[in-house]
Specification:
The protein is about 75% helix and about 0% strand. It is mostly helical. It has one domain: Globin-like (Orthogonal Bundle).
Length: about 190
C-alpha cells in the first residue's frame, strides 16, 4: 500500500506539481482494491473453522480408514491436531492474502512443514487432500461474491465487484502449501 501511494506522490513531485485528478483517481483505485482485499480476508476468516472442519470431514468421507485404529485421524488427539494444523494453515493463507505477499506464509508456516509431519507420522497424502479441499472452499467462497445465488446475509460481508484475481491469489497460496507438503521446505 505504501509503495502505491509513494509512487503516485513521487510522480507528481517529479513534475513539481500538486496531485492531479488522475493521481487522486489512481489513489482511489488503490484504496478500493485494498478494501476488496480486506473484505475477502474478513469473509475467509469468518468461515475458517467451518472450512477446516469441512475439509477434514471431506477427507474422512473419501477414506473412512483415517478414523479407524491406526488411521491419521485416530484417536481424538490426532483429529484435534489435524483441525488445529488446518486452522494454522488457513490463518497464514489469510495473512498472505491480506499482505498480497507469500513471505509470511513461507517463513512462518511452510518451512519444515513436510519434515514435521513426516516426523510425526502424519499421512501426507491425507493432509494434501485436506489442504486442497480448503483451497476449493476458499476459492469458491471468494468467487461467489455478489453472485445472484449468494444469500443476502453473506452479500453483506463480501466485497463488491470482480474478485477473480483475489481467488486466484488465494489458490496460489494453498498450492504453495501443497507443494511444501509434497516437496519439502520452500527456499525463498
Amino acid at each position: 500500500m505504501h509503495d502505491s501511494f509513494t509512487r503516485i506522490t513521487a510522480n507528481a513531485n517529479m513534475k513539481t506539481a500538486c496531485l492531479a485528478k488522475a493521481d487522486l483517481d489512481q489513489a482511489k483505485d488503490v484504496i478500493a482494491g485494498l478494501n476488496k482485499r480486506l473484505d475477502a480476508v474478513m469473509a475467509l476468516s469468518s468461515i475458517a473453522s467451518c472450512c477446516v472442519s469441512d475439509a477434514i470431514a471431506g477427507i474422512i468421507c473419501q477414506d473412512p480408514s483415517l478414523i479407524e485404529a491406526g488411521g491419521a485421524c485416530y484417536p481424538n488427539r490426532k483429529m484435534a491436531a489435524c483441525l488445529r494444523d488446518g486452522e494454522i494453515i488457513m490463518r497464514y493463507v489469510c495473512y498472505a492474502l491480506m499482505a498480497g505477499d507469500a513471505s509470511v506464509l513461507e517463513e512462518r508456516c511452510l518451512k519444515g512443514l513436510k519434515e514435521t509431519y513426516t516426523a510425526l507420522n502424519v499421512s501426507l497424502p491425507a493432509m494434501v487432500k485436506a489442504i486442497n479441499l480448503m483451497k476449493v472452499i476458499c476459492v469458491a467462497h471468494i468467487q461467489s461474491f455478489n453472485s445472484r445465488n449468494t444469500p443476502q446475509s453473506v452479500q453483506k460481508q463480501v466485497p463488491q465487484g470482480d474478485c477473480s484475481d483475489l481467488a486466484s491469489e488465494c489458490a496460489i497460496y494453498f498450492e504453495r502449501t501443497i507443494t511444501a507438503m509434497l516437496v519439502g521446505s520452500i527456499e525463498s
